[in-house]
Amino acid sequence: MTNNATVLDTRSQILERIFLAHYQWLRSTLQRRMGDAFGAEDVTAETFAQVVALPHPETIIEPRALLTTISRRVLFGIWRRRDLEHACLEALALRGRDTCHSAEEQALLVEAVMLIDKVLDGLSCKERRVFLLYKLDRLGYEEIGDLIGLSPSQVRRVVAKGLRHCVAAVST
Fold it and tell me: pTM score, two decimals?
């Protein structure tokens, strides 16, 4: 057997051992916390998919701690997307019947909002708010500064940082 084949075999054995030893524990823990067997199964599957994607599973010392951390991040992501979708649909409903959108248009709009959220992920809440006030509400630096409590030059720097995030997302 070649060295690469041995490494792959060892990697699969490690991943299989982790899966067999901890899958049922994680799924039942999530099911208790979520109260939803199907949702728990989805989160468990995504958690193990992320473990498989790790570059060096042989370095995992405490599998349950790692699985707990990853599953919490997966759950937070689900809740965040759900909250974003709800807020987006609520905002559409508040706009009134004049701007009624089809279900397909609503889904596309929610998808666009999720993409914007993902692109701006590295910004703090305050920086996101500044950037969105500038780009979506088309407020000037002084107006934003008055609302947020920043100087116009600080607002300009935050907007530039947001633009760099957007360019980086498009470049990758």
Answer: 0.69
